[in-house]
């Protein structure tokens, strides 16, 4: 009892002693409502200007003074790159000061040399923020920044976060391009206008429920009127073909209008060489083996146009018009595939050979338009945003397939088969969205919104065969598929920060109504569902060295439109891909527990349950000797693991980023074509990435990045994929007072990022060895003109439905 009494007195004594003391606290943010960390806050006496106390803001931009006497004080707040804030205040009792907004200080200082800052890393309750503005990374392009962003992997023409492809946003607006097109866009965009990269592994309710993690690129703004522009380009030499990218961007700002336009073109050829082996099985015995040598050359010349105009009606109202256009013309979008297949009998004796030539010509027009209106209320931070959107997507493809069949050692073919395919897809997409943000006080915020979208899709497939040299339509393999979808979504979220705690809660509801109609088969599929997507985030800061956080959210992956088409699209006489109009949406539940030490070292444990994942599964038909690529739902996928990341300074000019992940994947599915047997494919895997980046010379104008990536064997549905690793070296030199930059480098120096894939279960026995042009010698340049201190108002259109227009393929 005595011990308890002493303990109670010990706990309450500080509160008793300080009961008569006066405290002063407040928060400091920038003009984008983001907290300013480590800003200097001092108070001096008004009567004699003597220094009284000083402090810095914490990770939430909050400061606090205790033990003050009743008096009048001069409050002064300063931070590099912002105007100093001063105010005379009377402190007679505990005072919660109004939120302080610091304004950017953008004028240049003559005679002062500004040295680039080291990038900083900060964890918020629902995201990781990588601040790169004015850092050593800001001289390159945005893709270079991503390669150095903690938690982000860039390899094999893919951007991934936690083994999945993230949704890319710019200033909270989604970029609606394919994975390759996004890379081309980011590679052609200067990083000088990037403020920070936000890695959101479990997005809150404000973001679309569609997809997994979010990568939000925050562009900085300028208050100065003027003009700037840039030209940029890159050259990459692969083992077979060169690849180019050229572009220019221009930005003009007045007191009323901000106008931005960007144009880029990327002519390139890409080569892929595959070796495939299929063992056809009957009664557990191999009766035939096919070995194929597959070579593909793909020519593209994608052109992109991004433009937007912001009209400042007055201090509280802004109207914006924007457009994103992707044009892939028919004349320069061609694919050529040549394959040679040897057919062996059960004794591995050559039975026959067939050679297939596949010529493919595509054309794509993807045009999107946006109209935005933003109204700011009297209360600081309170605003309402209205968005309307329209996308016109038009894709067409013509394919000519010619196959010759030969007996062993024969020169002349004993049989020839030829067919042609024409396919097209036209999509009209309309959306409307309204969002409302309300700061409750300087540490709490409420957000809500509503969205409606309508998708109208028409897909056409006409296949033609040749009978005695005469072209005829193959009605059995021709079809028209109509797809209509309506989606209604509403969300609300609340966030609150305390001195050592941060909390964010959200709920998103989505109702979807779908109709799919196959005209050839008269098959109509009607589906509707209502789904709830809760999110929860909590973070506790024990002190400056220890943080603990937990979050949970639910996400949805809707099938891509091409995956729903029930067409049999033949790649050659013996292989075709087929869609599935009955595909279900995938629902993921993700739990994450993390701990950060000293703001540098983070350990994160996660558990993800995927219900009805959609996969393209390779199946061999052992009766008809066919290979089919089937879009289907597998039963479930469970993954869990432990990640470790650190981003730290080793020496003055040397920083490292290390990411390592140990994880377990458990894929389970029912093989419907093989007696509906349950198949389980699981294993432990590991991947790691180490990036060293160096800066040289007094002005740090010479940069070097050396990175190494390793991925152990992994599983993907029924497939087992071998390990990959690669070393990449890049050098960059800024020129002409930071107006220009030149970069050179080698990607995958030792050409070790290729892989093999096997499907070996039940009566399936498939092997693939894949080789891309991974090793690339690269040269890039960027030159800026006009007022280079002016930042753009670049935007990209946010709509998750557009992501489903194309299914990316290799």
Low-confidence sequence ranges? 1-19, 106-117, 789-799
Structural class: mainly beta
- Silhouette: elongated
Briefly note the CATH topology name of the largest domain.
Maltoporin, Chain A
Beta-strand percentage range:
over 45%
* Whole-number tally of structural domains: 2
User: Main sheet, how many strands, which sense, barrel?
Assistant: 28 strands, antiparallel
- Quickly name the level 1 CATH class of the largest domain: Mainly Beta
Notes on the protein architecture:
This protein has 4 helices and 48 strands. The protein is mainly beta and 810 residues long. The chain folds into 2 domains: 100 residues, Immunoglobulins (Immunoglobulin-like), CATH 2.60.40.10; 684 residues, TonB-dependent receptor, beta-barrel domain (Maltoporin, Chain A). The N terminus is likely disordered.
Draw up the topology in text:
Layout: H1 2-17, E1 22-29, E2 40-45, E3 51-56, E4 62-68, E5 71-78, E6 85-91, E7 95-96, E8 100-101, E9 120-123, E10 128-131, H2 142-147, E11 153-155, E12 158-160, E13 167-170, E14 173-174, H3 179-187, E15 194-200, E16 214-219, E17 226-237, E18 242-253, E19 257-282, E20 285-312, E21 317-328, E22 334-345, E23 350-376, E24 383-406, E25 415-441, E26 444-467, E27 470-473, E28 479-497, E29 501-518, E30 523-543, E31 546-557, H4 561-564, E32 568-572, E33 575-578, E34 586-597, E35 601-611, E36 614-621, E37 626-633, E38 636-651, E39 654-671, E40 677-696, E41 702-711, E42 714-716, E43 719-721, E44 724-735, E45 740-747, E46 755-761, E47 764-772, E48 776-786
Parallel strand pairs: 1-7, 1-8, 13-16, 33-37
Antiparallel strand pairs: 1-4, 2-3, 2-5, 5-6, 9-10, 10-15, 11-12, 13-14, 15-16, 17-18, 17-48, 18-19, 19-20, 19-47, 20-21, 20-22, 21-23, 22-23, 23-24, 24-25, 25-26, 26-27, 26-28, 28-29, 29-30, 30-31, 31-34, 32-33, 34-35, 35-38, 36-37, 38-39, 39-40, 40-41, 41-44, 42-43, 43-46, 44-45, 45-48, 46-47
């Amino acid at each position: 009892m005595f011990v308890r009494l002493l303990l109670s007195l010990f706990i309450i004594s500080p509160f008793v002693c300080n009961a008569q003391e006066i405290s002063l606290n407040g928060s400091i943010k920038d003009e984008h409502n983001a907290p300013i960390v480590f800003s200097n806050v001092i108070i001096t006496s008004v009567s004699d200007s003597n220094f009284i106390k000083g402090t810095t803001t914490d990770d939430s931009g909050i400061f606090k003074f205790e033990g003050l006497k009743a008096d009048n004080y001069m409050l002064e707040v300063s931070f590099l790159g912002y105007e100093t804030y001063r105010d005379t205040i009377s402190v007679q009792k505990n005072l919660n000061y109004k939120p302080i907004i610091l304004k950017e200080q953008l004028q240049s200082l003559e005679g002062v040399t500004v040295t680039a800052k080291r990038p900083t890393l900060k964890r918020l309750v629902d995201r990781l923020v990588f601040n790169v503005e004015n850092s050593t990374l800001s001289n390159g392009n945005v893709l270079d920044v991503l390669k150095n962003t903690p938690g982000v992997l860039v390899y094999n023409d893919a951007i991934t976060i936690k083994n999945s492809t993230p949704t890319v946003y710019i200033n909270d607006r989604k970029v609606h391009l394919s994975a390759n097109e996004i890379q081309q866009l980011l590679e052609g965009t200067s990083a000088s206008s990037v403020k920070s990269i936000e890695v959101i592994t479990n997005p809150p309710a404000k973001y679309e429920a569609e997809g997994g993690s979010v990568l939000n690129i925050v562009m900085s703004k300028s208050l100065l009127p003027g003009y700037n522009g840039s030209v940029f380009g890159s050259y990459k030499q692969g083992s077979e073909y060169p690849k180019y990218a050229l572009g220019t961007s221009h930005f003009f700002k007045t007191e009323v209008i901000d106008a931005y336009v960007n144009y880029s073109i990327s002519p390139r050829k890409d080569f892929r060489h595959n070796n495939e082996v299929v063992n056809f099985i009957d009664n557990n015995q191999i009766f035939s083996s096919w070995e194929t040598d597959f070579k593909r050359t793909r020519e593209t010349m994608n052109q992109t146009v991004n433009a937007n105009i912001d009209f400042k009606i007055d201090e509280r109202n802004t109207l914006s018009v924007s457009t994103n256009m992707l044009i892939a013309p028919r004349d320069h979008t061609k694919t050529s595939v040549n394959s040679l297949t040897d057919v062996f009998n059960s004794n591995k004796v050559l039975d026959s050979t067939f050679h297939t030539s596949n010529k493919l010509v595509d054309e794509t027009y993807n045009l999107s338009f946006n109209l935005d209106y933003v109204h700011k209320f009297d209360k600081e931070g309170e605003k309402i945003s209205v968005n309307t959107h329209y996308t016109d997507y038009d894709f067409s493809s013509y394919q000519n397939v010619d196959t010759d069949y030969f007996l062993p050692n024969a020169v002349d073919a004993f049989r020839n088969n030829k067919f042609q395919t024409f396919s097209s897809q036209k999509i009209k997409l309309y959306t409307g969205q309204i969002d409302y943000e309300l700061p409750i006080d300087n540490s709490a915020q409420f957000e809500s919104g509503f969205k409606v979208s309508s998708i109208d899709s028409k897909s056409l497939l006409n296949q033609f065969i040749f009978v005695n040299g005469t072209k005829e339509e193959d009605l059995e393999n021709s079809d028209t598929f109509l797809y209509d979808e309506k989606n209604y979504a509403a969300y609300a979220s609340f966030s609150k920060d305390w001195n050592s705690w941060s909390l964010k809660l959200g709920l998103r509801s989505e109702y979807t109504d779908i109709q799919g109609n196959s005209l050839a088969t008269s098959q109509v599929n009607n589906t509707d569902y209502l789904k709830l997507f809760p999110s929860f985030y909590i973070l506790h800061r024990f002190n400056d060295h220890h943080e603990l956080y937990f979050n949970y959210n639910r996400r949805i992956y809707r099938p891509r439109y091409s995956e729903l088409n029930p067409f049999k699209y033949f790649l050659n006489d013996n292989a075709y891909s087929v869609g599935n109009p009955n595909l279900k949406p995938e629902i993921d539940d993700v739990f994450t527990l993390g701990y950060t030490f000293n703001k540098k070292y983070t350990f994160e444990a996660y558990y993800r349950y995927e219900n009805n994942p959609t996969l393209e599964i390779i199946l061999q038909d052992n009766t008809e000797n066919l290979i089919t690529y089937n879009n289907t739902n597998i039963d479930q996928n469970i993954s869990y693991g432990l990640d470790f990341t650190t981003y730290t300074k080793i020496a003055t000019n040397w920083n490292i980023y290390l990411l390592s992940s140990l994880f377990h994947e458990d894929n389970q599915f029912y093989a419907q074509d093989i007696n509906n047997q349950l198949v389980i494919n699981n294993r432990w895997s590991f991947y790691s990435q180490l990036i060293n980046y160096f800066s040289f010379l007094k002005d740090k104008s010479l940069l070097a990045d050396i990175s190494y990536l390793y991925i152990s064997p992994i599983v993907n549905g029924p497939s087992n994929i071998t390990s990959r690793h690669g070393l990449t070296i890049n050098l960059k030199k800024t020129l002409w007072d930071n107006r220009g930059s030149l970069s050179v480098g080698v990607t995958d120096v030792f050409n070790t990022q290729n892989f093999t894939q096997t499907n070996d279960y039940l009566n399936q026995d498939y092997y693939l060895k894949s080789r891309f042009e991974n090793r690339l010698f690269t040269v890039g340049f960027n030159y800026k003109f006009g007022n280079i201190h002016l930042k753009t108002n670049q935007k990209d259109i946010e709509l998750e439905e557009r992501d489903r227009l194309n299914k990316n393929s290799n």
